[in-house]
Write a structure and sequence with these properties.
Number of strands: 44
Strand content: 25-35%
CATH topology of one domain: TIM Barrel
CATH superfamily of one domain: Glycosidases
Helix content: 10-25%
């Protein structure tokens, strides 16, 4: 795989490469929601001409490159879909299968420009040189797609030279297309999927290719998503799975260049200016997350791997004995006869009665999740059947593409082949029929770029693979169990429709704990509302301090799972001493009391795309102090959490302007800005902004163990605010508002009991 990394960058900047770009509009027409622009075009050549040791590029902006057509579609009343060159007719994709139609599209023409007008956004297009400005509903510029005059051509229009570090015009080249935006002075760029590195993408050169990371650190990532958002108030989504690179102000701090290994560019410009609106509008294009099973929000307990039925029953019994609330027990790589040999059949010796085991666990309030992978070992009967039916990825010579995994040879199922997908998911459904209700979709990053697939190019299939993989297994789970759920290591654009992702194989270090949090915040800014990680780290073994600090973050994430590598490497809290057990029990118990708040936040995410783990900018976009913060976050709407990410319990926390309350003491904090905090192991910084509402349910050992006959509503006064409680049960929804110093309970038909507490 490393043979490809840097491949796009090398192609984009190689001497002799020529990009064709539009120069002057020669005509336009609006038909329905689509504006077609005809333009003559010029060439942008990479010449590497040196002058006094400096390298230059050459461009010619005369119309000597022939005509070019740019197709711009209105999307809803908030975004524009730009496709070029003239043969780009890309329609529905797996990432965006149902793009909204335009609403109320119209154009306004003058001698100098054309304005494509929607209710929430406009696109101002100058005739010469051709450039575009995305405007919000008030007419404020959000972002510019620059014309070639950014390089200051000479007056004759014949062309000129620019620095090697300057921008590329949006256009096409052989085997590649490019798209450019101009970055404003203080703009921050977030997103592009799960990233363990710093939050702001500006100044970074990023390669969009899924890779196995073996740690929550560094530039490699499991989850690339070709969507980013800007604090300037816009989003950019590239509707392609082909390999691409992002130069976000790396070569030139003032320009963001996207290079795509596909000659057709299909890109969406999404107007804000609110970051929350941008995420919602992205999800309106690529889809919203579905409702998850309520039990999924409980604690998951796992190892790699519980080796037999006795161990699983023992863990279940100890959890209930120790009063550790838990809902899911996960069977990882060794529930079949031989570890990692995934034949989707329980070992007859170690799991002799799997259906009875799963049934007995269900009576104790546990749900079972299972591991599998899309690789088939050459010793399996499945392998021989897959070869006979042509279900595996091939090499260019027609042979089976084999992978070495711990010294064993595997074939990869070709998920571009519908028959292969039906064959494999049929086997998954058989296991689900035995009582399991979730499937871990592991190891989806190895799809070879050079492989031969039934219906797709390998350069597209590599990044697309986890989306098809998750979709296929998710739909199988939904068909058998009623609601779908996969525990996914990789995903892609549109993957929020098939949740939920976790941060992959982390190491048991404080650095990986911090990296996991950065990845979760970044993924949330990329349109994925749900996220989890391995409490304690997967590789290695944490000490009690690291274990508890990780658990505190984990239990304030959308989903919480303890998981470690090896059957003798436990992540159950009693393995870390009495103090750790006591603290873990306290935080797990708090999470279960917070389930009404968590359920309601999850329901709201289905409609808005807003993540559980929220970058501070989603609530304080105008406060530039929060733009670079990546070690504290909002957990839902009402709780600001600042995990302890290093030893000793000391850290700084930033509180934006306003009134805040210390969650643990109820003490009012009216000092805004940076504050120093020192937290003993049994606590961590959590602050509540005035005007917030938090809903509590009863103490319980698993989700819905007790009927929620009465809830507690805690209202934090001092500012106007509201919380829209979304109830899954029969009691109905309600709204709690803080207005003019008063607490208003709008029951909306709510039929349950409640206690109301006001903290002032």
């Amino acid at each position: 795989m490393r043979e490809w990394v840097n491949h796009t960058k090398a192609m984009a900047y190689e001497t002799g490469r020529r990009f064709r770009f539009p120069v002057r509009i020669t005509g336009c027409s609006l038909e329905g929601d689509t504006l077609s622009i005809k333009a003559n075009s010029g060439y942008f050549d990479i010449m590497m001409q040196k002058s006094f040791g400096h390298e230059f590029q050459r461009f010619t902006n005369a119309g000597d490159a022939g005509g070019m057509v740019i197709r711009i579609d209105a999307v809803g009343n908030y975004a524009f879909r730009i496709r070029y060159p003239e043969n780009c007719e890309k329609g529905e994709t797996l990432m965006a299968p149902d793009v909204p139609k335009g609403i109320g599209a119209r154009i306004v023409e003058t001698e100098e420009d054309i304005t494509f007008v929607l209710e929430k956004a406009s696109l101002l297009i100058s005739r010469y040189p051709l450039r575009m400005l995305l405007l919000d509903e008030s007419g404020n510029m959000l972002v510019e797609i620059p014309g070639i005059d950014a390089c200051h051509p000479n007056d004759s229009g014949a062309g000129g030279f620019c620095s090697l570090n300057d921008f590329y015009p949006f256009g096409t080249s052989e085997g590649m297309s490019a798209f450019t935006t101009r970055l404003s002075l203080n703009e921050k760029i977030y997103g592009l999927g799960e990233k363990f590195i710093g939050m702001d993408r500006r100044g970074q050169y990023l390669e969009s290719i899924h890779q196995d990371c073996a740690g929550n650190e560094g530039a490699r990532t499991y989850k690339n998503i070709p969507f980013y958002i800007s604090t300037a108030g816009y989003g950019v989504y590239v509707n392609s799975a082909y390999l691409m690179d992002y130069d976000i102000g790396a070569m030139n701090f003032d320009f963001a260049n996207i290079f795509l290994e596909e000659e057709e560019m299909d890109v969406f410009l999404i107007a804000g200016p609110s970051l929350g609106d941008i995420i919602k509008r992205y999800c309106m294009i690529t889809g919203f997350a579905p409702e998850l099973p309520r039990w999924s929000y409980g604690l998951w307990m796992s190892r790699n791997s519980y080796e037999n039925e006795d161990i699983v029953r023992g863990i279940a019994g100890r959890l209930r004995e120790e009063k550790i609330p838990c809902d899911v027990l996960h069977l990882d790589t060794y529930w079949f006869e031989e570890d990692w040999i995934c034949d989707l059949r329980f070992s007859k010796e170690r799991f002799p009665e799997p259906e009875k085991l799963i049934s007995d666990l269900a009576k104790q309030g546990f749900t079972v999740s299972i591991w599998q992978m899309p690789y088939v070992h050459e010793s399996q009967d499945n392998y021989r059947e897959g070869v006979a039916k042509d279900y595996f990825v091939k090499k260019s010579d027609g042979g089976i593409f084999h992978f070495d995994w711990f010294g064993k040879q595997y074939a990869l199922i070709d998920f571009s082949n519908d028959d292969a997908v039906k064959w494999y998911t049929g086997q998954i459904k058989r296991v689900l029929g035995m009582g399991a209700k979730a499937v871990k979709t592991d190891i989806a990053e190895g799809c070879p770029v050079e492989g031969i697939y039934r219906t797709r190019d390998g350069r597209e299939m590599h990044n697309l693979f986890p989306l098809i993989y998750n979709k296929s297994i998710f739909e199988a789970v939904r068909e058998v169990c009623g609601k779908g759920l996969v525990w996914a290591r990789s995903t892609y654009a549109g993957g929020q429709r098939y949740p939920l992702p976790w941060s992959g194989d982390s190491r048991s270090t404080f650095e990986n704990l911090a990296g996991a949090l950065r990845s979760g915040i970044s993924l949330g800014l990329s349109g994925q509302p749900f996220w989890s990680h391995d409490i304690g780290g997967f590789i290695g073994k944490p000490d009690p301090e690291l274990y508890i600090r990780w658990a505190q973050l984990g239990l304030f994430s959308s989903h919480a799972r303890c998981h470690g590598g090896g059957n003798s490497n436990p992540r159950e809290p009693w393995a870390y001493g009495e103090e750790a057990l006591r603290i873990f029990r306290s935080f797990a118990g708090l999470r279960y009391r917070l389930l009404p708040y968590i359920f309601s936040t999850g329901r709201q995410s289905l409609e808005t795309g807003m993540p559980f783990i929220r970058h501070m900018s989603l609530h304080h976009q105008e406060d530039r102090n929060v733009h670079g913060i990546y070690d504290q976050y909002y957990f839902g709407k009402s709780m600001m959490v600042a995990p302890i990410l290093s030893r000793g319990g000391k850290r700084q926390v930033y509180l934006p302007d306003g009134i805040w309350f210390d969650y643990w003491t109820g003490r009012k904090v009216e000092k805004a800005g940076w504050i120093d905090v020192q937290c003993p192991l049994e606590t961590m910084p959590v602050y509540i902004p005035a005007g917030s509402v938090i809903i509590y349910g009863p103490e319980q050992q698993y989700v819905d163990e007790k009927e929620t006959a009465e809830i507690e509503i805690h209202v934090y006064g001092g500012a106007d605010g509201a919380f829209d409680y979304r109830n899954d049960g029969d009691a109905g929804d309600f709204m709690v508002k803080c207005k003019d110093g008063r607490t208003i309970f709008d029951d909306g038909g709510y039929r349950g009991k409640y206690k109301l507490k006001v903290i002032e």
